[in-house]
Design goal:
By secondary structure, the protein is of the alpha/beta class. The protein contains 8 helices and 18 strands. The strands form 5 sheets. It has a 5-stranded mixed β-sheet with strand order 10-18-17-15-16. Strands 6-3-8-9 form a 4-stranded parallel β-sheet.
Amino acid sequence: MAVQWPWYSKAVVYKSIVIKNPHNHARRPQVIYVKAYQNGQQVILHRITPTEGAVLEVPGNSTPESLGLPAGWQSATMYVGPTQSQIPQGAVLVNAIADADIFPTELANLHKLLKQLKEHWPALRVLNWPEGIMKTRRDAIATAAQGMAGLVVPHTVRFTPASRDDFMAHLKARSLAWPLLIRPAGKHNGSDIVKLDSAADEALLDSFAFNGQIAYYATEFYDYKNAAHEYQKIRIVMIGGKPHLRHHIIGEEWNVHMSTRKNFMLNNPTRKETEEAFLARGMANFAPDVLTGLSQLHTHLGLDVFGIDGACLPNGRLLVFEVNAAMEFITQDTTAYPYLNPHIQAIQQAWHGVVESASRDV
């Protein structure tokens, strides 16, 4: 069976997916990672190894392969494009197209395709259905999470300004409260964000290229520093609806990201001990209703694996910065932080359980 469909809306490119006959191929448990690439998109080369070849990163895709697979499993990665791909019956498809801002068209098309495949192949098992990914835009999460138990999600809006003046006009019309965090849609690192304390700071927006085509998010800033005047950013990895703490990075400024660990924690045993103790307590750090809120969020998204960046507030509530499946779930050098390893292993084992469970349904 072949399903043909237009993949790119602005190019005459077609994608065929052929389901192999299982009687002609060995039945080994297999995962197919489905990823996307756009013409002209920047690709990041991480390294070249004798065993793996070139290790590439295409922004907008997640890296679930870093979680590994159960013993005896094999995997393959399929990028959307003009060539024909084959999926053996019995394979578990993992949708790794993970950013709703970068790949909205690709996610919508993949969802349609998978629904078509499901009609012909009822036992098809897909992890991280595209429909759930499309719900993870920052503004969509801010709206959907209102009223979810134990979660604090600041008001967020999305718009596509043509100029700085146009941007400021949008802000004025949206009834947002200062300060505000501004970032381009599809950007997640700490260097692509600007904090405006008031309209008087609008000159800071000149670092952005407003052209009426790039969307931007404006989010109300929630000052989350603790009694010690430090900022503590956590990552929760949700797998199969269950939360797993990934890290607890401590910083002296509000913009906490991975480089903060090296600059502020590496040579400070006390901060490392604080992180280790926080991770050891797990979800006991939070108010009891946070577990209810996370369950509600999982039900809303329907995703098998995704991440939450945020902070644990003094009252135990979870301040949510972002929710998406494009985060790094485990990748990090833990040489200086060996206490992270048991938590990484727990995340991997949970994922292996989800994959094995999926394969039993195929």
